[in-house]
């Protein structure tokens, strides 16, 4: 497959700038792979397609307030710092992106907060935009993290939600089951699940399995090669527990429906599969890149948002749903005025 095959015209006004009033009342497009049928529903109707002992796999990563604004020493220039990951607790080292990158050199100090209470020193240039910062803070690590996060804001992606951060974002850019901190962007498919919907799913007998994949900015990084086999994904940290493995493999052995909630879940479970198609316990990193054609082994249904043109996220969905079917469905979504992006509507693909 070529990059250009995932291009489509997306009017700017179709990108959702705000979430739906209620999590489970976004629109839901249902794709039936076997018949080619497309249905138009409300998200809470997802319940109608699953039965007792079916399994939903969720990503319980938690987004942290990764975007900070600081000032450069001497010049006072305003610098955006995007925290990517903590490299060393003891030394307070962080891998970050800075903007504008051209203004920052090794040895520069950055000051954060109204009273300049947090100071960081640039100690390494890792990429054209990336840097390693050492935060100069003497207190205990937990105290440092609390102070650092207090300076940050919800990291809405500029390319998707181009507006100021609002109070509702702190809650709505996080799934209700978010637990393990480490993501710099929300796994968007999980945002549609409300407590009420999950309670109704429980009552129906549907089982939940939770994996953790800390979604990184690589999900939104532009692909700069036409030949997709040459694209390299950023590595992301993930954990698949014994409990998740037990729940998923039992459902697989009993020929139940297994639904991957989002592209991060799909990448995670496909990163740790045994030769007989069962899920394996895993803790580590993955840079798995899925694009058509691809043979999936664990899930037989999938929930996803409507993604941007040329994105790796769209490629995973097209690999699962079938390239022609999914790209046609996206044209239907445009015609029917579905909302795209982080706060947009959802798609359910059924393969049974």
TrEMBL record:
InterPro entries noted in UniProt: QueA (IPR003699), QueA_dom1 (IPR042118), QueA_dom2 (IPR042119), QueA_sf (IPR036100)
Subcellular location: Cytoplasm
EC code(s) of this entry: 2.4.99.17
UniProt keyword S-adenosyl-L-methionine, yes or no: yes
Catalytic activity: 7-aminomethyl-7-carbaguanosine(34) in tRNA + S-adenosyl-L-methionine = epoxyqueuosine(34) in tRNA + adenine + L-methionine + 2 H(+)
Pathway of action: tRNA modification; tRNA-queuosine biosynthesis
Enzyme category, top tier: transferase
Domain of life: Bacteria
UniProt subunit comment: Monomer.
Role description: Transfers and isomerizes the ribose moiety from AdoMet to the 7-aminomethyl group of 7-deazaguanine (preQ1-tRNA) to give epoxyqueuosine (oQ-tRNA).
Similarity annotation: Belongs to the QueA family.
Protein name as catalogued: S-adenosylmethionine:tRNA ribosyltransferase-isomerase
Gene for this chain: queA_2
């Amino acid at each position: 497959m070529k990059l250009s095959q995932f291009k489509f015209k997306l009017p700017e006004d179709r990108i959702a700038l705000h979430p739906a009033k209620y999590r489970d009342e976004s629109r839901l497009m249902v794709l039936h792979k076997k018949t080619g049928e497309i249905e138009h529903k409300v998200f809470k109707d997802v319940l109608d397609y699953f039965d007792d002992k079916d399994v939903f796999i969720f990503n319980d990563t938690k987004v942290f307030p990764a975007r900070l604004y600081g000032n450069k020493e001497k010049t006072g220039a305003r610098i955006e710092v995007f925290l990517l990951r903590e490299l060393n607790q003891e030394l307070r080292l962080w891998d970050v992106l800075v903007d504008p990158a051209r203004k920052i050199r090794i040895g520069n100090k950055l000051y954060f907060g109204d009273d300049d209470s947090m100071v960081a020193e640039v100690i390494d240039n890792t990429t054209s935009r990336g840097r390693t910062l050492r935060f100069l803070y003497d207190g205990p690590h937990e105290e440092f993290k609390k102070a650092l996060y207090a300076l940050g804001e919800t990291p809405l992606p500029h390319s998707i939600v181009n507006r100021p951060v609002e109070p509702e974002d702190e809650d709505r850019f996080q799934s209700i089951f978010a637990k393990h901190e480490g993501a710099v962007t929300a796994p968007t498919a999980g945002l549609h699940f409300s407590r009420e919907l999950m309670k109704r799913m429980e009552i129906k007998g549907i089982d939940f399995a939770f994996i953790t994949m800390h979604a990184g900015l690589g999900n939104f990084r532009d692909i700069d090669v036409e030949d997709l086999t040459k694209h390299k994904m950023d590595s992301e940290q993930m954990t698949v527990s014994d409990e998740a493995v037990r729940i998923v493999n039992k459902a697989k052995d009993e020929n139940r429906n297994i639904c991957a909630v989002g592209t991060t879940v799909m990448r995670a479970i496909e990163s740790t599969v045994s030769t007989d198609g069962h899920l394996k316990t895993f803790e580590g990193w993955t840079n798995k890149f899925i694009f058509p054609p691809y043979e999936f082994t664990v899930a037989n249904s999938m929930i996803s948002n409507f993604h941007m043109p040329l994105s790796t996220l769209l490629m995973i969905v097209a690999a699962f749903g079938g390239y022609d079917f999914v790209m046609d469905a996206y044209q239907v979504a445009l015609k029917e005025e579905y909302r795209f992006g982080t706060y947009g509507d959802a798609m359910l693909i059924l393969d049974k």
